[in-house]
Amino acid sequence: MLLIYTGSYPDDKCGVGDYVYNLNQEIKKNYTVNVVKLSLFELIYKIVSN
């Protein structure tokens, strides 16, 4: 299983979001993939609050 954290994902208009979407489409052909969309602030908050 693979977990991808990203700050943008479609419907966001962003090259990073498009890249992560396409990466997810290719990887999930052979693996289980979970994509989690978090802002940098949300990610830091989750790390610090644990």
Automatic annotation (TrEMBL):
The protein, known as: Glycosyltransferase family 1 protein
One term of GO molecular function: transferase activity
Keywords: Transferase
The organism's place on the tree of life at top rank: Bacteria
